[in-house]
Amino acid sequence: MYKKFLIIASKLDKAGINITTSLSQFRKNPLLTSMNKDARGFDFYLVDTEIIDDTGIDNNKVNQYDFIIFASKHESSKKEKSLSVHAPGNWRNADLGGEQGKVCPSSALFQKQLFENLNKTAKEYNLDKNYNITLECTHHGPLIEKPCVFIEIGSTDTEWNDRRAAFVVAKTISETIENFKENPYNEIAIGIGGPHYCPNFNKIQLKSNIALSHIIPNYSLPLTKDMLKEAITKTTEEVDLVVLDWKGTGGAEQRQEIIKILEDNYIQYKKTGEIPK
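Request: output the structure for the sequence above.
Response:
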């Protein structure tokens, strides 16, 4: 069970600073937390470089904690307002930090509860009417050895400085840390296929019994055995199955290759349309 959390943001990131500033109001007295070994708490770590830059992070500091939450801006070409959650890592090239073909450890259970709370809190403060609340596939750096997740505000200066958006994200982080429980009834899965913003996986994460960790999008296919192994071994819980966004896995030949890899490795799979929601 995770007890010690570290919230990392970049001093160069307006959204990250906005989120951590708002989150400071939810922080318990660190002295009291340190005196109680069973108490959950979080600390802040502001880095001088961009948050995806591996060289700016002191791994000795990071390794003192159980779980890492990166609070960050999100940028997109369409400039859409968004609040998003995703695991970091690179399935192929490492163009934005990290290493090629390597992803970070990620907790499907924590990601599910974080995403559920983000949706709930955004609705509570009427932010869901203007912001798209979404998962993203696993992408970009940094690469660390501790379980971690990104939570982001997108996608322009206006949103990064939006205090209400930052408050919603901060409240989400605080409540998820405080109330996180290891749910033995959730099935643990990785996702394969679909676009970057994962509309089908959003529904599964919110409305089904499945908890998703890493997501391999269509643009990172074709799937390889090494990619599958990386996704499974870097999920902190034992993976029960793979969920396929069937129409988002390419043509018939590529789909059959995915199935072959899964069956050769004795991995159960289901299509998104087969999962009760």
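Residues 187-274 form a domain with the Rossmann fold fold (CATH 3.40.50.10700).
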